[in-house]
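Narrative of activities, Objective 1.

The group set out to show that a structural description can be obtained from nothing but a protein's sequence at a throughput compatible with the screening campaign. Below is one input-output pair from the validation batch, recorded exactly as produced.
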Amino acid sequence: MNYSDLFRATLPETALEVAALAVLVFDLGFLRKAALQTRVAVASLLGVAGCIVAIWGVYAAGNAGFCVNDGLLLTAGGITSAAQIGILVLTALTLLLLVEERFTKHAGEYVAVVLMAAAGGLIISAAQDLLVIFIGLELLSLGLYILTAFAKKSGKSAEAAIKYYLFGGMSAAFLLFGFSYLYGLTGSTSLQEIYYAVGRAGSAPLVYVAWILIVAGLGFKVAAVPFHLWAPDTYEGAPAPAAAFIASVSKVASFTLLINVCVNVFNVGAFEGQRDAIIRWLHAYYATGARLGGVLLIVAAASMVVGNLAALAQSSVRRLLAYSAIAHAGYMLLGVAVRASNFDAFNQGDSILAFYRSQMVSANAVLYYILTYGLTTIGAFGVVSVVERATGSDRLDSFLGLHKRNPLLAAVLLVLFLSLAGIPPLVGFWAKFNLFAAVLNVGAGPVPFALVALAIAMSAVSLYYYLQVLKRAYVMHAADESPIKAGPISTLVLVAIAAAVVLMGCFPSLLQDWIASFYS
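Output recorded for this entry:
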């Protein structure tokens, strides 16, 4: 094992761990007797600095992954690097929103846990081995359980953390069982070796069992139906910055893992000279994958329907955002589940690499969607946090008359919720447009068309419950119209997020070109 290569491949994770240690040293060593406001600000800014250094580490690592005995453990470049930078940017934003929060006196510990959980997300995004995937998932998950329970004076926070932990433990068991079956069938923990073995041997009954168990485990991470029961309580009970972190960073990492598991099926460069062999392998692999992908399609459809319909009945904006997240997970699962089913490009054509790139269209669309969704959701939770601090509640009626009580905050809420609903020219519209177009281009037959039609219909349903919040903010009047004040840092961050949503909506190629730059 070359430890210098390992260090280079894990530079971003190392930067976050060093930053977490620095936060603890400063907070517990030098600022022990300082004012809570000072401690929170210093811890948050040190965490943001760690994220900036980690972003440099992603660029410094380049496209060099890490292999042991010709087995790929960690990948780099492409979707992995783009997702890792997205995770780091979203983590930094949640830390900036923490500066004006006062739900805990343990500022250093909170920021350290956030950074370590983010490091787990980075590992998940790059993992190409079952053992590495499980280690990264556990590092991320344990951090999320702790963050959910960090508001020690809140009974809802404790209840949410217990539910999250119990469901998380069950999902980890399902995932580990699925991984163990794959290892028993193929004799390897490497994703690529597992793909080759499944493609060569065809689909044994245990492959389907393993796949269903893995879908159950990963479905919990992305809050997909029927593995979503933890999400509403967690989103409602967790501190607002923690809920924003769970709704954004955790989703980016988990969907990147799903893309790696379901879409990045093989290293085409190694087979470019073995055209006939790889074509036979692809036919066998996709024959199995088409049946396995059907499980994800069912989960996607259920998530879209249940998430949107359940959101209609919510009186808590946090729970509304939770069910909205379930629905958005369904949209994104479409891009992961739909697979190409014809191989005419081989007969006409040019190269296996060209075919592989066509398969990555849906993967890039999913990444575009989850990055923009994560950014928008952090802003939404930031607005909810400000209103909650002022009114003591996140109920719909807490937003009454917001356009008079804080016009800037109401404008941010308008931009973010309309983007979540997919209204042009905001970035949420382009995220859905790109994803649905990719599903129709990559998928064949009536099923992808029917699912996209369902997704569009459910998006229309989602507009209703987003407008219920905006109706209270802009149309209805509050009995108490005293101003709602947001701190300068929160205001700056929320305005910057709203501006980014508008800018990327007006110029959608900005993010698309940035993602594409990692493939060069």
